[in-house]
Specification:
The complex is a heterodimer of chains A (about 575) and B (about 120). Chain A has helices at about 10-25, 30-50, 65-80, 95-110, 120-165, 175-200, 210-215, 220-235, 240-270, 275-300, 310-325, 335-340, 345-370, 380-395, 410-415, 425-445, 455-460, 465-475, 485-495, 515-525, 530-535, and strands at about 330, 330-335, 375-380, 420, 500, 505-510. Chain A is mainly alpha-helical. Chain A folds into three domains: about 10-215; about 220-450; about 480-570, no CATH class. In chain A, the strands form three sheets. Chain A has a two-stranded antiparallel ribbon with strand order 1-2. Chain A has a two-stranded antiparallel sheet with strand order 3-4. Chain A has a two-stranded antiparallel sheet with strand order 5-6. In chain A, a hairpin with a 2-residue loop joins β1 and β2. In chain A, α9 (about 240-270) packs parallel to α11. By secondary structure, chain B is mainly alpha-helical. Chain B has one domain. Helix content of chain B is about 65%, strand content about 0%. Chain B has four helices and no strands. In chain B, α1 packs antiparallel against α2 and α2 packs antiparallel against α4 (about 95-115). Chain B is globular and about 45 Å long. The interface between A and B is medium-sized, with 33 and 24 residues.
Chain lengths: ~575, ~120
Amino acid sequence: MSAADHRTVGELLADSEVLARETLLDATPDHAPAMVRSWNQLVGSAAELWAVLPSAPDNPSGLDPLERLRAVGEAIGRSVTAGHWPGQGPTDERLTQIADNLARARDLVEPYGRPSQQGSPETQRDIQDLHVQVMHTLYVATHGTAVALRAHVTDLQQRLAAEERRRQRLAERPTALEITAAQDMIARFDGFEQLAGAYLFGLPPILANPDQVREAAPTRLETALAAWEVQAHRTLATSPDPADLVRVARVQALITSTAGVLTEAAARKGDIDGDIMQRLAPALEANQVAWGRAAKRWGELTNPTSRTDIALVGAAGEVRAAIAAAATNPTGWATADQLASRVDLPKAVKILHLSMVASIDIAYVVRDTAADHPGLAAPARIVGMRAQGEAEIAIEQGETRYEGVTWTTPRQIAANQPIPLPEPARRGLINLADDVIATTNHAVAAAAQLHPSHVEAANRSGHEAHRGRSVEGLQIGRPHDPRLGDHADELHRASPRRLIDITDQTVVTSNQAAPVAAGLRWHCPPGMKLPKPIRECARYRREPQTRTGHQGIASKSSPAAQPGRQRPKEGHA
Amino acid sequence: MSRQRMDADTAETVAGVVRLLRRAAELVWAGVDAEGAGSPRQVLGLGIDLAADEARNLLPEAIPVDGPVPVGDEPAGLLRSAEQLLRRVTTPGAGTRLHGLRAQVADLVREVNTGVGG
């Protein structure tokens, strides 16, 4: 940061957004590792700036969405520092520049303290715009990183295949492990992007009457889950005891079960499609079972002296209390009618599924803990039993390193004293964490279409008068350049949960698939094959009623508003 | 009541409470496993776990928690015993955390008596 930097806060934020867009437009395979390495610094700077900005008018409870994201950013940073892919190396210039800009903005804002959010609707809009700008920068940069990571994975896969054909030396080839690690990183960035997107697309409108703003206050469940995620990351970051891991897994299992109960109730009440529930229910069940198994295995490693982090106990207690109050009755889970009378079902479903998105990263941290935590120790008898069991499985699969190895001494067994976990015992924990990760990803993917954000986006059309400025802030203000070839490429390359409406360069996720689909009726060239979520989207098959129905996504310069734009044939749907 | 100021009798009583709660939790989680995914007894199981954590965190490091496994196969009975033990702690000025634990265990007893956990 140069001493001659005279940019204002507004200019620094605007420059940051431009840089974030550039990462997206220039997301090449080579950039991906450096972008991952820079991530923690970027999120840290954003969080520090956020902390000194006036609190957002949509956030009267003090619930801090950046804390949640910062916890994920720090977890990714720790993972890289611990030597996991991509390991140490150069950082990304653009992301580092954005981090520096945000740090500079913080320096400029901080002397004025954190003023109250009280003020006229215009002031509140300005405050919201600042928050939106910071979050949008992160959102676009996340997407850019994920796109670069996907390109990197494709590149590694192609190189691996080509070099196998050419019989290149093993040391010069990318490894399957490297590819898996990069794919894991994509899943973590996908989760991050959904969390940032949930903030951007779930913003309540700024109303003239402050009382109405207060009505939009987060529920107890929302607050408890957000606090839980942050605390789980904090506890797992600081030499956790196996008892902490048990508690994390038990709470996550309960959250998953609750998500199942509330989602089913929402389906019964007609708030979500029954077909989606049919796909989602087994995914949630598998995820709950996976967390339950992990809890049991970590539980075996505890001993009578084990202590659970007191802050984790507090956060878990609040989640339990919130779930008990919202979703249970004296005989078990509350009925659909009871649930509908107690909570806003679509909102509660959204909150729980967002929490599942956040749990993807918690699951990765659990796996990192199993793999790396140097202080991981457990009673000798269970360590011996588990290590031997895993070693035998590995030997059956051709692993020779474990043959004839004994994992404990008779003395350790006699005293059942805590001993460090040998590699095979860790391997068992890692496998269980992998199951959790896979089932969480599956559940999150199955839930993608029921995410009510797209409903909110549509509902927002009624609030355009006071959303206008923020909506502008959400758009990547490139002059209209249809580049429909790129559009098609991006849509084809995108995973089902990630799409870009390139017409106005607005980044969207499947949460916004419906409005985007409605927009694509107008933008798509004939013959273009659409991704599944858009094809399946009911709104796509309908004639958009008005352009304001998806104004939260499309820009004012959208070609949808232009007469004569070719529309896709119905067959594409 | 800080860990340092806890007298030996109280510490021993709280250690007994930890054992009772841990055993009760073990039984409830076995029930959860038997019922399969989505069991509502998870709420009770987690509640007992958290009460056991709270009790464990009240104790100084030097106090051993291991001891004989409490007799009984009914979570309700074990929770009632824990509640009774906690009532016996009459240390003047017992801290808010101990009072909180008492209330927490009393709530769990009510929950297990009226609900699915018993």
